[in-house]
């Protein structure tokens, strides 16, 4: 699965959970500052990403995933 | 025996859990609620004149299930006073599917499991059954725990 596929999959999750249009979910965007995603939605996104990509995102790692790109890279390296 | 009124702040007519059957604090709970006609939602006689009209309101079924979820962490940190301690806030419910109506006389068995807990955010999942038959399933309920003091400040006017 390419980084592009991961980003696309992640964007679908973000759209479903937080109601942010999938095309807004680009690598440089910050979940909190740009996409206005709160801590509750972030946890929900992480859980769905774990199911979708078969990756484990530990609690302490979640806080480090500031941008969409961070999350894509994390999923790509750990899946 | 666990008294749910010692743990949850809800009171009549909104306390919608009767008894805990089994609980693993922080992980899961099985709790029951008996449905009776003697609840306020059946006060309008017209609403109970047909079997369809006697179906328990689905929103209250989920409320009852969510209250059972409140016991999972509440048992270790009881909060019968909603104006103090940690308050459980509903963030979202996803993929709730109803399979059968509930009628007076039914006994709901709520099965609630913690799918994930990150800090003060918890995701619950589970189902409700009556006599072994599935009533509804909940894929995800996201809940946040916040100190009551913070919420009162945010709310502005305080209740006296």
UniProtKB/TrEMBL annotation, chain A:
4'-phosphopantetheine is transferred from CoA to a specific serine of apo-ACP by acpS. 4'-phosphopantetheine is transferred from CoA to a specific serine of apo-ACP by AcpS. This modification is essential for activity because fatty acids are bound in thioester linkage to the sulfhydryl of the prosthetic group. The gene is acpP. Carrier of the growing fatty acid chain in fatty acid biosynthesis. It is found in: Cytoplasm. Belongs to the acyl carrier protein (ACP) family. One of its GO terms (molecular function) is acyl binding. Pfam families: PP-binding. Residues 4-79 form the Carrier domain. The keyword Phosphoprotein applies. GO terms for cellular component: cytosol; membrane. The modification O-(pantetheine 4'-phosphoryl)serine is found at residue 39. Its main location: cytoplasm. Pathway: Lipid metabolism; fatty acid biosynthesis. PANTHER family: ACYL CARRIER PROTEIN (PTHR20863), CARRIER DOMAIN-CONTAINING PROTEIN (PTHR20863:SF76). Keywords: Cytoplasm, Fatty acid biosynthesis, Fatty acid metabolism, Lipid biosynthesis, Lipid metabolism, Phosphopantetheine, Phosphoprotein. InterPro entries: ACP, ACP-like_sf, PP-bd_ACP. This is Acyl carrier protein. GO terms for biological process: lipid A biosynthetic process.
Automatic annotation (TrEMBL), chain B:
It comes from the Bacteria. Signal peptide: none annotated. GO terms for molecular function: lyase activity. Pfam families: FabA (PF07977). Keywords: Lyase. Belongs to the thioester dehydratase family. FabZ subfamily. This is 3-hydroxyacyl-[acyl-carrier-protein] dehydratase.
